[in-house]
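I hope you will forgive my troubling you with a question about protein structure. The matter concerns a single protein, recorded as an amino acid sequence and a row of backbone structure tokens. Please examine both parts with care and let me know of anything in them that strikes you as inconsistent. Thank you for your consideration; the sequence and its tokens are set out here:
***
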Amino acid sequence: MSIPATALLRFWTMAVYFHGGAWNSADPARSFGIVESTVRRYLDSLTQLLVVRQLQPWHENLAKRQLKSPKVYVCDSGLLHALLGIRSERELLSHPKCGASWEGHVLEETVKTAEPDEAYFWGTHHGAELGLLLMKRGRRIGVEIKRADAPTVILLMRIALADLKLDELHIVYAGSRAYELAPWVKVMPVSTIPRLGTS
């Protein structure tokens, strides 16, 4: 699909604000004055070019209303920062998208190094969620991405662990020490991602 350069730049500038969140074609369509199907084609084109990742939701046969829209990530964090007008580490750390930027970077590194058979996210309308669900060699591996120096297991993680019948749950964080937080819950720094799913 051929997209005019000016329209693509406008779309990019708008799409980066969805980074780390659920995609909704209605808002960009209204801003562009075009139909939602055209906006979705724009997004699909950037996905095919491997500059945007559409992380699809996992649907389990549960008695819960589950999220159905994909989450959108700009694959290259440098490009994301440029489009957001972030020029320094100081600006990044004070920017509202700082957490989402970290999440997107870790997500890309995780998928690249863990080499799962499939990758999804999971969430419900009641707030239960899992940032990344990896299917690898018949195992279900859950990944939560946190910038906190001392991650904790919260109720929503326990719900995901039980509802999705996870074989493992990992919390990837910005620290440097790997440790076990609870049975079946391991905290790991980004540098140990290549070992994820090998146990």
User: Anything to note?
Assistant: The mean pLDDT is 87. The first strand starts at residue 21 and ends at 22. The helical segments are 5-15, 26-32, 36-48, 77-84, 89-93, 98-114, 155-163. The first helix runs from residue 5 to 15.
